[in-house]
Amino acid sequence: MKLNVKHILFTGLAVIIPIGLTLYILVFLIGMMDGLLTVIPAKLHPDTLLGFHIPGLGIIVTLILILICGLMTQSIVGNKIVQYSEGLLDKIPVVRSIHLAIKKIVDSMFMYRSRSFRKVVLVEFPRRGAYTIAFVTGTPNDEIQLKTGKKCLSVYVPTTPNPTSGYFIIFPEEELIQLEMSVEEAFTLIISGGIVNPPEPLKKKTDSALPQPFDGKGC
Asked: What pTM value is reported for the model?
């Protein structure tokens, strides 16, 4: 009886924890986005105009502002305003470095999305004989290739359970072990700390199910 109760308890936790954490994160994000509405004057605030609060309205307002900014940037006048604003930021010594770094990261993620996180690989890190999951992000410039004397690739090694932080390392291409798993499957593996493994490739499953050739051993 005790074993059955324990099994039922763990089964319930396995169902409730993922759902509860997902709902908690959604509520947190909605509350954070609604908090952005505090910059709107009280007279023009949606809660004042409507007379009641609508959860998630901050997300809608943020999306509308992003669309407006995108439309303005595509116009001639809006593009000039953006260039003028970026020019002002570039004239401030410390702010210039921060703005330039963030702009390059954002451009690489959104403007050239297909170029970021191209391939999942296995690398020896943080020492020889220890392996970790990493992502190929690009190819270093010619100077690095010439100095090392090898064909190298830029690799991002994420940390667990927060893959947004990690290490940028340049590896010789010959030291990278190519993996078949997708980027999404690799992120799941990293965030879970290795608890959730990606499914085996279909080709390997099919090959293992096929009858193997007779090797002359056995009867």
From this structure: 0.51
